[in-house]
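Quick one: DUF898 domain-containing protein from Cupriavidus malaysiensis, structure tokens please.
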Amino acid sequence: MRFTGSGSEYFRIWIVNALLSVVTLGIYSAWAKVRTLQYFYRNTELDGATFDYHGRPLAILKGRAIVLVLMLAFNMAGQFSVWLPLLLGLALVLVFPPLLVRSLRFRLANSSYRGLRFAFTGGDAGGYRVFLLWPLATAATLGMLAPLAHQRFKQYQHEHTRYGTVPFAFSAHAGAFYGVYLRTFAMMLGLVVIAALCGIAIGVGLGSLLGHGPQRAMLATALSVGAFYVASLAIGPFFLARLQNLVWNHTTLGPHRFRSEVGAFRYFCLVLSNLVGIVLTLGLFAPFARVRALRYRLACVTLLAAGPLDSFVAGEAEQVGALGDAAVDWYDIDIAL
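--- reply ---
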């Protein structure tokens, strides 16, 4: 896979979207999302063909209006009763899993490759499990079940996604997710130890210059915290790189399978340089940073096709027929998942 767009092209879209969203008090944000997704989809190439996005801005605006009304009702409920916010909070908890499921359906039903639509067939029961029960279990166990909950979510997401009539499959077990989480946690602990040692070394080194007053302690603390913050920037890229490789190396589409080879160190260097660019330009480098990160992550993904994709897509198109377009009308809601 490869991304053919450029940061300068996306910057023009990004700045216009931002300005119009501000002028229209956020109403244009639905149209901005469609323009953005269409740009990224249409510049993502696989085997000489590109993807496309067909979502309607009004459907996205409707989904955001629903969320806004729910949030306003929750915030105003406290003015009338002490118990009403609790009841509305419970209602929101029960409503959001089906909304998230419909948002997944909307996104995939409006995504296509070579004219053939994707689809998401997951039901509300599975949505309640991955969006409600597993997060509650994770909180109850103080995060111990987070890798298992993550594995269940990716399994639910991938195994209920299809391209045409061919379903995706997901074979990664919970143990592999625990491996990624534990390695990330060990890396975090190592950074804490390194930061503490750096603080001690800095304190000892400054002792001869500043004596043993409060200035030395404050400066040593500030430098050690700063060193820890810079080092901790590696945690996010490391986790995302390992996670992308884990998920896509265990994903198949019919007879075809995927391979992902994101380098954690290279991705960290990319993220760090993006952060420097964003800080130095007061945020104006953000569109370029997004394009750079996406280009690298897509370039690391390969579809190991079991045969020519032309014949695969043609055969699927004959089986799907006109049902794909009709199904989209049933899922016209998006809550910006």
